[in-house]
Structure formats: structure tokens, C-alpha cells
Write the C-alpha cells for this entry.
Amino acid sequence: MTQLKIFLISLAVFFIPFIIPGFRNVNSLIIQSEDTVPSIFTTISIIKDQTLYLDKYYVMMRDRYPHPDDKDFQKDLTPFYLRKIDGHYITAFPIVTSIISIPVFILPVIFNMPLTWDNLALLGHLSGALIMALAGLFMFKTLREGFDLEEKKSKILTAVFLFATVNFAMLSQAMWQHGTLQLLSILGIYFFLKHQKNPNAYINMLFSGLFFGFAFLSRPTAGLPILLIELYLIFTNLHKIDNLFKSATTFTSGLFIAASFFFWYNSVFYYDIQNQGYSDQLFGSWLSPFPVSFLGVWLSPSKGILIFSPVFIFSIYGLYLAVKNKIDKAGLYKIFAVIILLHTLVISLWKHWYGGWSFGYRMSGDVLPYFIFLMIPYINSVYFEKTKKLFFVLFGLSVFIEIYGLLFFDGIWHAAYDLGFENTSWLWSIKDSQFLFDIRRVLVKLGLMASACPKCL
């Protein structure tokens, strides 16, 4: 019953504001990013046309969301979120989110729902909310059953995961790949921990590998946890060679099933792995001004992890306690910390480490479950009782920031200040930060200021 309540409450909190007219009057952005547009149409195409090709919907997508360099359609550039292969248009992004969203779309599509942008946004929003609500449900199950955390504390950390992070303002609001990756990664960890408790139940390692494999198909950044979890498995089972061999084999078998699916649809629809959307970014997109970009991932006034979710300070403290006190699963907590560190390091090297036109630290959303897991040593310690007030203050502040993002993220701040990846000084300005810009927007509406962007006049 508790799990059902968590699922239903989170789904309602994520989805209901979108259908309230008053909310739409405050934030009229119905689809957060064109990155999520092909996922919507891929789901429709799978159901309606039994294909991944988006030829029927290309004009509709291009007219609403053209390539940034082709706004007048004079060059007819294929939008960056699509690929043109052998005369067919296909999504440039992974398709796992589209597949998971089929249950949401199937009845409206079968009954010929009109393909208007409002209808599509509604279904896309419901899909994003549903995926994140499921992620919250399995986060709670993992905390309770995998880490043996008591119910009250599991609810607190699940609430942090759902509402004090970009999961609230961003990833639950559209068909982002990040939400799918989180759901599948949590399931991978859940079954891995079940195997740790019952080493002879190798089916759990098969499921762990399967879910981690599909997480990787959702976003390539999920490859880091796979490698590190496997290394942890090896080094903690060297004294049990037979068990280690069977565990590693079943885990790898799960990965193989996911890989087989990828190679099948890649050969049928993409023909060559080089036609996959991320392939052309593999060698030419590592252009960030490191280490400034790495500091930006964590501390940028308009994008930093610790700025938008200051409650994560307790994740860092949790790691410290795990290492200092050598608690149960201390090695696993170290692995979680390395996953976060390597992910933020890799992202900081990529030219769009700040996530393009998005709210907060979207690009680091992939590792949010590991931030939550690192809070376990803290919330289980005597220091939680001593610092409980500070924890809930930062928790509340983090939730407030997400509600603010839900209301104010509409791309206007980016339109006013975004200088692209070649000059990232705009990401460090406090005076022109997204927070202060939006305060000025409110003052303009109240007639107390002439413009929210004085330099734009």
C-alpha cells in the first residue's frame, strides 16, 4: 500500500500542474525541448505504422521545430534531432523511452486521436511523469529491501529523489532519456542487491544485467555504472571463484540480450552504427574549457548541482561517514561516489555540459540515484538527528527551487543570455543568473522595472 501511495502521489504531483489552466498561463511552454520531440513521434510510429521511420511526421516536426540554422527553410537542413537514412527520417536519439511509453499512447493512437501539438504534449508529459513515478516506486523498494533502510527514512530519501532534484522540474515533464535511464538503473541496482543477499539466486544477476543493458541503450553514460558494478562484483567475490563465474556470466547474459536488441534494430533501420545520433559526437564534441566546466557542473550559479539541489551536501557527508566508519557496504558506496565523479568529469569535457536550453543540471540527471544512495550512511547515523533541522531546510530549499523551475523554465533566460559553449562566462554571472533574471521578470510584470534584461534593450 505504501508503494502504491508513493507512485500515485508522485504521478499526480508531476502531471496535474500541466493540465491546470492557471499553470499554463504562467508557463506556456508545452514541450520543454525539441530533444524530446522525436521520442513522441517514434512511439506513435511504432504503434500506428510498425516502424521507426518518421517520414509521415517529418513536415509537422520540421515546421514547428526546424534546425536552428534553417529557420527560413531555405537550406532544408534535417533538424539535429533526426537522421536521414536512405531517404527515411528517424530519431537521432535512443528509442527505449519511446518503447516504454507505448502503454500511454496506444489507446489514443488506436482511436485516432488528432495529432495536435497540445495532444502530443499531454501524452508526452504523462509518459515522463509515469516513468519518474515508477522510478520513485523502485527507489523506495531498493532503499527498503536492498539497503534495509527503515520505512520512514526510505520515504524521506525517495521524496528527495523525486521532488528536490531536476526530476521534478525537468525530467518528469517530458519524454527525456534521463528518466528512463534512472528507472532502469535503479532496477539494475535493485536486482544486484537481491543477488548480494542471496548469491545462489543467479536469476537476479540476469535481471540486473538486462536492466543495466537497457539503461545503456537509453543513454550511453549508463556504461560507467555497468563497468564499475562489474569490477565491484569481481573484487568482492575473488574468494568464491565458482560463484563469481556464474554471477558474472548471468549478468553478462542480461547485457547481451539488450545488446542483441540494439544490433537488431540498428541493422534494420539505421543500417550502420555511424548513423546513430551520438556517433558523430564521439570524437568532435569534447570542447569544454576544463577544469572550469567541471566546477560549473557542480557550482555554476545557473546550472550547478549543489546550487539547484543543495541537499546533496549530505550525499558528500554520507560518503565521508561510510569511508570513515567502514560501515556495511562501504565498498559499494565508494563505487557510487566514483560513478558520480566520473560521470560529472566526462560530462564536463563535453561542449554542452550545461545541458543546452534546459533547467538546472539536466546532464547530471543520469546519476541522481547514486546521490540518493550516498545519503544512506548519513540518514542512518547519529549525525542525522543532530543536523536534522539543517537537512530539512536544505531539502525544502531544493524543492522550492524545483517548483520555481516548473513555473519559470520557458527558455526566455537562455534566449537572452546564452552565448553557447565557446564562451561560458554567462553561466558564471550572478547578476544575470537565471534566478535573478526571473525575479526581474516578476518585477516587470508588477510594473516595477522596465526590462528583465537591461542589456537587451
